[in-house]
Amino acid sequence: MRLRRPRLPRTRTGQRRLVQAVMAGCVLALLPATWMYVVTGDRLRTTADVPRTEVAVVFGAGLWDGEPSPYLAHRLDAAAKLYREQKIKVVLVTGDNSREDYDEPDAMRAYLTRHGVPDARIVSDYAGFDTWDSCVRAKKIFGVDKAVLISQGFHIRRAVALCEAAGVTSYGVGVDAKHDVTWYYGGTREIFAAGKAALDAVFEPDPRFLGPKEPGVREALASGR
């Protein structure tokens, strides 16, 4: 069966309405991204000028054969640098541990300890299944009120916007990344993820897993350097 091609309006009124509908759709599609840029306008920093903050949050970005992917390694390198420069005291690593054979937080912890961050200064969130979940859990489970967020540039605005919506005063550090296929995929994905982020900020859904409060961040801050 042959599919019939959609017919464009033949009258000027119909054509005008079609153009208006397309323009309205474009505006609606861009609203979430515009919201993110407005919310995060003065919140983006580099490792050189980010304010001293007790806690840094590093978001998971995948594992390769059980080790942090290059993108995740760049995030962890930035966190280790901030710790060495005494700009942060504790690193909260948040990622996916939904399967027994996939453990982002433990891989992130092991990488950080190899790069000079003491194990006692690392706190693991094993239920950071997406950015919103990580932000809400940082606030409600780990008691984080203010944090430096570390991710790639294409993701950091969404992370800051969502953590601000979750009640975490945030500064974002977007680390450099090679503009390869993964980078372009990530940038394209953010266009669609912005819509979900706006809905999360408005409706504030509970994370997939919340659970009881955990004292890890408080205890890590109380421990000696």
TrEMBL record:
Pfam families linked:
DUF218 (PF02698)
Limits of the DUF218 domain: 55-173
Swiss-Prot/TrEMBL keywords = Membrane, Transmembrane, Transmembrane helix
Q: Which InterPro entries has this protein been placed in? A: Cell_Envelope_Assoc, DUF218, Rossmann-like_a/b/a_fold
**Spans through the membrane:** 21-38
Q: Does the keyword Membrane apply?
A: yes
Query: Which protein, by its recorded name, is this?
Result: ElyC/SanA/YdcF family protein
